[in-house]
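Example (one chain per record):
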Amino acid sequence: MAKTGKSLTGLALQKFRKDFWGVLSFIFITLLVLVAVFAYALAPEKSENANWGDLAIHSKPPGFGTDMLHFPTKESDQGSFSKFFFGDKIPPNKVPIIYWEISGDSLIYSEYKDDPVLAQKKKIALSTLGEDITESNFVEKCITIDQFILGTDSQGRDLLSRLIIGSRVSIAIGFVAVFISLVVGIFFGAIAGYYGGKVDAFVMWLVNIIWSIPTLLLVIAITLALGKGFWQVFVAVGLTMWVEVARVVRGQVMGIKQMQYVTAARALGYGNERIIFHHILPNSMAPVIVISAANFASAILVESGLSFLGLGAQPPIPSWGGMIKDHYNYIILGKPWLAMAPGLAMLLLVLAFMMAGNALRDALDVKGE
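Predicted structure:
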């Protein structure tokens, strides 16, 4: 009897909170969204797209560390807000070294080599590093020890930083593509289910045509038509996912429009638009929310497939699919972590969305009460 006073939303939330894996998946997704938003604050490499690298330290294993010699960089007029959210557009001017010593007013150093015997010594004046650089403050101002927690990729870039910043693409593709699919799908599904007749026949003909084309092939066609790029991929994926939403909304609207409160709204003289958007659609959103969670996962996988084919986010923008494409051959070369790290991140994100969707389905299932 205690539940009778609660709204349907309250009952659904109560059921959802009891689903351990659903709540855990929701927390994981929320944390990953925060990681994507504050990517540059969390990433060890702060340059734009974490694109700084040195071929001398390419494909290093997790935990690799080395000394870095920093040279002066140009002054940047980039604001602190832009740096915080979009990275430093001027990459650091630094080189990995394995040896250094100061002789008088000169610095002698050797750049990093896998075989130290091949390292050649170089000599420069300390003033090259800055007018205020002296022997006493050289280490403090010019030398850092860089640690690469997940190692470096094939270009000598920090793999962890690329992984963190690459999460932005996967998270963004989910939100943007699902938003586009909801807008288009709800519109077509609502008018097809409400008006019926020729409108319904036309919408279903369009849905069947799009559904008959393989998703990846359709996305590739739209991408080629719009051009390669970051936002083009988002639009292309969204325009291929609306058909499932349209079919679900159509079925819901066809059932709800026969309800007595819709008949009463017509009797009161309300227009079709008001009946659809204020009375029918709000009562048909439960299955749409569930299918949206599944579409999040599908959008992430489709974008990864496009990036693997070279049609997704273009370099130097990091994306998990692109990282797998660049390093999948390293799996048989004894360096599997280069491809497994983004692959595992993608697996966990997709799994989280699927489990959250299952939990939402159970929570919104009125027959379960």
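Caption: Residues 48-148 form one domain.
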